[in-house]
Write a structure and sequence with these properties.
2 domains, globular, Rossmann fold, single chain, about 475 residues
């Protein structure tokens, strides 16, 4: 099978002497298939302006799609991240609907589709990823009807009543239905999409199949996973052992709660901190006996909304520490910075309780990474029931991410949980992560795309090679 992956970004970073593949679950899972098939990854290089010529990195052929500054503003920051992102995350923040953003989004999607059409061999497979490129499957279908095409949505798909607000709702759905198979993070996401397609388009449904025109599209849950074995191996190194011991010594003989998030309003950082404050109000002894470590990775720092969110989070931390600090202890440790991988793994191992409380999330791989790194099968995961990971990690302590008292209750339960109960829960979650890792996910998703039932032409469109 010849495979072409199409995603907003190439999985690379520029070095002084060329390009190197950046670590990540998707590229890790697909690297063997891409190498064996001499496949191609298509995406933006991360640099505005002219794109570099196709190049190879770690045995994978990379094809860069050019984006200029205006397109990045309108297609990426605009329609992708200020229209679709908030709409798909239950309007936690109001989305904006601008026609010039939509025009840029359509133009950039067409450019990605044209690149895929040029660089994919006859009868190849193209796997398109995420909300940035929702129009690509149908555009590519019109250019190359010989191809097998898959689409995977990494974020939630919104309820019909919210999706109905999008002025270009039918265009997005038709774009996605150009694929032979569409994968979602959850059963609910796939079900909502089928229901929405029936509402807005002339389709018929049969089980997990959507019949649209002359084609049948498989629509089903395909929850993503992590490279569990790699996390276990990396968390077991002497370097991580040493740094874990240092962290425990720095934090003292206390229970450690940990949050690790990109600084985004979909992560629920301020609410979880306010819940910790609620716990301290109820049981002040935890101000002495516990510490909350929050790592916030900078994101979109040039956007006013994100600056305001950061200020609100830091104000909350200042209030908690102002009320509950002593001469020897500060109850909340806050790191607004990116973190090296070894340091991240050491934090996963040093924590007693991992707190993952997004008000809406497609999956949330941080929750899985924490469990994979618990080499002694101990530790407790407090997890939002509105994250996709809640369907995979059922032995966590599930919470309503809007319920301050409920989250505070879960903190208290987690901090007091007996070791035997911790291990029973953690063993169950880690066993599942081993059975269904990212390699199994990629294999099964590609098999579904290959088994698609959509009609296709025996010949590629002119100029496709």
């Amino acid at each position: 099978m010849s495979l072409t992956v199409v995603a907003n970004r190439l999985p690379v970073e520029r070095l002084d002497d060329g390009w190197a593949v950046s670590p990540g679950g998707l590229v890790t899972a697909l690297r063997p298939v891409l190498r064996e098939s001499e496949g191609t990854w298509i995406g933006w290089s991360g640099e505005a302006g002219d794109a570099p010529e196709p190049f190879s990195a770690d045995g994978i052929r990379m094809v860069a799609v050019p984006l200029d500054e205006t397109e990045l503003e309108h297609y990426y920051e605009g329609f992708s991240n200020s229209t679709l992102w908030p709409l798909y995350h239950d309007r936690i923040r109001p989305p904006e609907f601008h026609r010039h953003w939509w025009r840029a989004y359509s133009a950039v999607n067409r450019r990605f589709a044209q690149a895929a059409a040029r660089h994919t061999p006859h009868d190849g497979t193209v796997w398109v990823h995420d909300y940035h490129l929702s129009l690509v499957p149908n555009m590519l279908r019109s250019l190359r009807p010989d191809l097998r095409i898959g689409f995977f949505l990494h974020i939630p798909f919104p309820p019909l009543e919210l999706f109905a607000q999008l002025p270009w709702r039918e265009d997005i759905m038709v774009g996605m239905l150009g694929a032979d198979a569409i994968g979602f993070q959850s059963v609910g996401g796939a079900r909502i999409f089928r229901r929405t397609a029936r509402h807005f388009l002339d389709v018929s449904l049969r089980g997990k199949t959507v019949r649209y025109g002359e084609r049948s599209v498989r629509v089903e849950p395909q929850p993503i996973a992590i490279d569990t074995g790699a996390f276990v191996a990396q968390a077991s190194t002497a370097e991580v052992d040493r740094r874990t011991a240092e962290l425990r010594a720095e934090l003292g003989d206390r229970k450690v709660l940990l949050g690790v998030d990109r600084l985004d309003y979909t992560k629920g950082i301020r609410t979880r901190l306010r819940a910790f404050e609620t716990l301290l109000d109820r049981e002040p002894e935890w101000a002495r006996d516990a510490v909350f470590v929050q790592i916030a990775v900078p994101s979109r720092a040039n956007i006013g909304l994100y600056r305001e969110m950061r200020e609100a989070i830091e104000s909350t931390i200042g209030r908690i520490n102002g009320r509950y600090s002593s001469s020897t202890h500060v109850p909340v440790h806050y790191h607004y910075a990116s973190m090296e991988f070894t340091e991240l793994l050491a934090h996963y191992r040093a924590a007693d309780v991992m707190v993952v409380t997004p008000p809406r999330d497609g999956m949330n791989l941080v929750a899985m990474e924490f469990c994979a790194c618990r080499l002694q099968d101990d530790g407790v995961l407090v997890l939002s029931e509105l994250a996709g990971a809640a369907h995979q990690l059922r032995q966590s302590l599930l919470v309503n991410p809007y319920d301050l008292d409920g989250i505070a209750d879960a903190y208290g339960r987690a901090l007091r949980m007996p070791l035997d109960e911790q291990r029973r829960r953690m063993r169950s979650m880690r066993a599942r992560l081993r059975r269904r890792d990212v390699h199994v996910w990629a294999r099964d998703a590609l098999a579904t795309i290959g088994a698609g039932t959509g009609a296709r032409s025996p010949n590629p469109a002119d100029g496709s090679q």
